[in-house]
Amino acid sequence: MDRYKLDTFLRGHSPREELALKKVKVAPDNQYISYSDLDHIEEYLKHEAQKKAYLPQILAFKERISFIKHERFLYGIEHKHPFIELVYVYSGRCIQWINDEYFMLEQGDICLLDTNVIQKIEYCGEDDIIINCMMWKSYFDYTFFLNLEDNDILLSFFSKALQNQKESSHYIIFRTAGEERIHRLMQEAMCEYYNKELFYERNVEYYLSLIFTEMLRSYKKDMSRKYDPLFHHNKITKMLQYIQEHCQTVTLNEVAERFHFNPSYLSRSLKKILGVNFNHIVQEARLKQACRLLIHTSTPVEEIANEVGYSNITYFYRIFHKTYKATPAEYRKENNPFENLEA
């Protein structure tokens, strides 16, 4: 498997994703498919995995390092893991909840999660390819920490995670969108992992060490943002939540007044920290809300556009298609879990 075949493989549908797309009722009491239903269909999935040559995910729990694609078209539930997890947004974007806090992760971003973090990822669409890299305790040996000798941020994170596993619930988000080197290294690591050729484990660990180095470099470049008042008391997260909840009518002046910032300062800081301006943030929030309504309701598209803040329907159609490479109707047909369910 090379990088091009890897990309095709990751964008393909797993057995669980096929089930979700076919709108099959498999859970008791005629409930719809969610992650909480997976135990009820395990035997079916094992059979499908054998037919479609997918690596059974259970094998991943016997390895020091494992890569698993996050299942799309399903509805996440809160959970935590007994391993340290690196979440990489390979394509698209996702909404990640961590300890009851909301974060928008864009393509290229990385989230490092400790063992006791309560987390979930909201519904992911066709283009939202999220990679979970699971790192078990056996991976963190002397050589690992030796390689992190000058990486003070990650060294501190992993040390605390391993020493205080019952109490620790830390996380770090690396805004590495656009870092092409990290993307290539992640692809190479996954190719090694899925090919499973001679010495593949050693090579995967080698690529991960390079990825950690690039993560640190990116983090160091953005260290100045840590001293921005927006980061005090997690104001940036609360601000994004506010924008999402009031995306229909929210304005820069309104947000600035609510969170006690000068509008000009807030505009500059948002651009510096998130890499996009206020209008882009609002537009993204509106489109995400429109997607939820398309998926979960039968409300007409024109009404949805008005509900999320667009009075110009033509403009709504244009930016929706530009963002999701589909019309609202096509998006609804591809992702709506309530259509065509078996009786």
Notes on the protein architecture:
There is one protein chain. The two termini are 41 Å apart. The protein is built from 14 helices and eight strands. It folds into two domains: 3-14 and 62-221, Sandwich (Jelly Rolls); 235-335, Arc Repressor Mutant, subunit A (Orthogonal Bundle), CATH 1.10.10.60. With 343 residues, it is α+β, with helices and mostly antiparallel strands. The strands form two sheets. The protein has a five-stranded antiparallel beta sheet, covered by helices on one side. The longest helix has 22 residues, at 200-221.
General form? globular
Output mean pLDDT: 80
CATH superfamily of the largest domain: Regulatory protein AraC
Taking all Cα atoms into account, the compactness measure Rg is 21 Å
Largest sheet: 5 strands, antiparallel
Key phrases:
alpha+beta, five-stranded antiparallel beta sheet, single chain, Arc Repressor Mutant, subunit A
Secondary structure: elements and pairs:
Layout: H1 3-11, H2 15-21, H3 42-52, E1 65-69, E2 84-91, E3 93-98, E4 101-106, E5 110-113, E6 119-121, E7 129-135, H4 142-147, H5 152-163, E8 171-174, H6 180-195, H7 200-221, H8 235-245, H9 252-258, H10 263-274, H11 278-296, H12 301-307, H13 313-324, H14 328-335
